Amino acid sequence: MSAGTSAGDMFPDPVCVTVDEGGLLIRVHRTDQGPIFFGPPPGKDPSNRFDAPAGEYRLLYAAERLEGAFVETILHRPSGRILRREYVNQRSWTALRLGRPLVLAKLHEEGLQAYGVDAGQLGTDDYRHSRALALSIFTHLPAIDGLAYRSRYNNGEICYAVFDRVAATDFSIAKQESFDTIPDRVDQLMRLHRAVFDTSSPIPDPPAA
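and the corresponding structure tokens:
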């Protein structure tokens, strides 16, 4: 953005959605790690769709529903639709309750035009455009707490990327379950997304020389 260019010039009519105070965000995460995490970790390169290109911010990724969080984290590649149950059982889902409202840039439906982007640019494996857009929103719209967008792998689900300008203390845990305690729910989520478990025996380690 050149000198003299305002946020209003870049995004003259931003479209937002609000998740009210008391609302829930759903996280899927490793059971041995806490659910409130803004990534990537310090010193790590960006790896996700809206990560800061050079560490300008960090993000907490979540979803409106468990279905969205599950497909984005457990089944985030088409080739990942065959996996071992142990992989899922090492993870949990948590409902995070908001202690304040979140105002999120709406990067779907009519919001695409407002931010000068199309769904194809947000759905590609090339993350340069989506990261540049997220950085522009973070930099030029300081009242916006994050992004709301459609899952790449189930576009009926809404996902969230929350900037670390939102404090970890603005979240509390409303509910938490380990997937190994709810196998029927896991099976339902797998069937929904046409995913299956690999039931073959693990390949044994080669004998010591």
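(Above: one complete record from the training split.) The two ends are 62 Å apart (CA to CA).
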